Amino acid sequence: MEAISDHLQEHLRILFVGYNPSIRSGETGHHYASPSNRFYRILFQAGLTPRLYKPQEDRDLLQLGYGFTNIVARPSLTAAEITPEEYREGRLILRQKIQTYWPGVVCFVGKGVYEQYSGRRGMHWGSQPDPVVEGVVEYVCPSSSGLVRMKLEEMVAIYSGIKAFSEAEMGN
């Protein structure tokens, strides 16, 4: 199964970074495509999108200034299948993407994604001190996977915090 395409452009408001695509995303070519994934519902309920988007519309979010990538490109059933070598390579590639496209906010969709990227542990939800790429807001949110047992309302509250940073970056 092939990797799905990143959706990137310069000066994004928010770059969403996942672990890696799900099998369903690999099959459809769209980010967060698993029927059990709550990503688009969370964005809408957090006030980040004006309406509820579908995975097939992921590319349309570029118009809102939102991009998508993953720390590892290879689709898998779970993040547990990702090898240390894939994380090492992905960490370098991700840093290069951030430095090339220079988003205002990099939202890590899962603490583990940020741990793999930054090499840090024990972080809190939200904006992180001492970003890996200086000048970029690094924001950690829960994974939107249906495997995560956090209540939707709690997740929405955490994602809602991104708005203040993305609006500040855009001068709104």
Q: What labels describe this entry?
A:
5 strands; 5-stranded mixed sheet; 6 helices; alpha/beta; 172 residues; globular
Describe the 3D structure.
- This protein is α/β, with parallel strands linked by helices and 172 residues long.
- It is built from 6 helices and 5 strands.
- It has a 5-stranded mixed β-sheet with strand order 2-1-3-5-4, sandwiched between helices.
- It is globular and about 40 Å long.
Q: Quaternary state, please?
A: single chain
The number of helices is: 6
Q: Please state how the strands of the largest beta sheet are arranged side by side.
A: 2-1-3-5-4
Rg computed from alpha carbons, rounded to a whole number of angstroms: 14 Å
Pick out the low-confidence regions: none
Q: In percent, how much strand structure appears in the residues?
A: 5-15%
General form: globular
Q: Kindly, what is the distance between the CA atoms of the first and last residues, rounded to a whole number of angstroms? A: 41 Å
**Mean pLDDT score:** 92
The description of the largest β-sheet is: 5 strands, mixed
Total beta-strand segments? 5
Helix content: 25-40%
Series of secondary-structure elements, N-terminal to C-terminal: EHHEHEHEEHH
